[in-house]
Amino acid sequence: MTVITIKKSKIKENVRNKTDEEMDSLLSLFGVGVEEITESNISLDIPPNRPDLLSVPIFLASLRTFIGKENSLKKQKTSKPEKNYKVEIDSSVKEIRPFTVCCIVKNISFDEQKIKEIIDLQEKLHSGIGKNRKKFAVGIYPLEKINFPITYKAEKPEKIKFIPLGSENEMSALEILKKHPSGIEYSDLLSNFKKYPVFIDSKKNILSMPPVINSEETGKITENTKEVFIECSGSDFELLSKVLNILSITLAEMGGKIYAIELEYGKNKLLSPNFKIEEMKVSIENTNSLLGLNLEEAQIGKLLEKMGHEYKNKKVKIPHWRGDILHENDVIEDIAIAYGYQNFSRELPNIFTIGQSSKKEEIKKKISEILIGLGLNEISSYHLIKFHEANASKTEKIEVENSKTDYKSLRNNLLISALRTISQNKDNDYPQQIFEIGTVFSHDKENKTETGIKENESLIILMSPANFTKMKQTSDYLFRLLNVNYKIEESTHLNLIGGRTAKLTINKKEIGYLGELHPETLREWNIKMPCAVIEISLEEIFDILLKKD
Asked: Mind listing the domains of the chain with CATH numbers?
């Protein structure tokens, strides 16, 4: 959730002067959470699937539509480009941030509050769906300081020199990344590239170096600004288009007029922004089946109108600022919100069942109780690790798409997570004794799973300081209480000391390893004390104990 704050007087103007309690109820029915209501402001939790509602003007217009007032957002149109309003996208940005969408908005009467709202919207979009500018970055500029046409291209860092926003002196690109606060914060987004993207106008003035910083000379709007140029650059053209629509409509709701810009991607030319209305089929049968209602087509049409849609002949026209409508079920969710969750009848399920713990969970609980009884602390860590941390070949590693962070690989062991925990607590009191029962992932070479990914439950025990003998005693105690026979044989392991490493087997099947961590591994994780570890797969143990039951 992202919190926005709106003046209470603004909401009262739009919802017929309701009391605090009535506004709280109305806003909750609209689908947003009320964080706080004070004498002058209302703070709201905006759900992550509705980035358009981060815009105060769009939020207020959508709320007006929800209570049956005229939908002003539908009136917002784009005018044709004027003069040489053109942006040329050079092929040099293809491997960095390949796309941009742009527009111009005129006739704006900025004041301090409007500037605050637009900057706040920009930053909330950056930090939310923009993943801290990783997916896109937005620049807003006073139009009078820009000379068209504009070029979006990549340059070598030493060739990029301008005065960054908030500074007085000219700096090179590398100086900005090392010295400027924004440069330091977002330097990792450019660190792997030999060239950096820039927007340059026809007089060779650098407007910005996305996704880091605008120019002080051309990238700062004030109360005297009447016309603005907006650009949004990144790697997902569809996402950029939705973000630009939100920004341009926000300024239009503030009184501005939107003008399109011609984008030139080599020989391909297109106009931006794109306010094309998307259509989607919505089945009355699916709607009633999913919601448990008996709505007629006319009723569905009226409910969708409350949410800003148009509906005719079982087709819904989706507003161009709504990026969250991807499936028929998303439209049906809007129907449910408009219908009112408080109006749904409560029913008990017609099937009566009694819940019961699975046998595997009972075994895991028993293992936890044994280890807690030995004084160990249980941890729970994320399934994702950094790509280079997985001790596997490139083909064996499992990388997820569109990760929000540097943690991009599904873990193939629990050791990485345990080492990270000890490393982050290396300055706390010792001894440190931890364990985790968790899922590890591998490629399904037998093609028994639908996803092609195999999931197994594993156990790791890590103690510091500790040695081989201590871990052997711990494993003996654990297996004895589980009533499972196992054997131990000398072995080797990439992260353990030779001669102080063993493999664990059950019925001649290897289930894990035991030993002392190698000094090089400790040094890599900046751990100051000696550590010993046990890591075993629980699948064989599950099979043995379940057969006994």
From this structure: 2-71 (3.30.56.10), 78-272 (3.50.40.10), 278-341 (3.30.56.10), 359-548 (3.30.930.10)
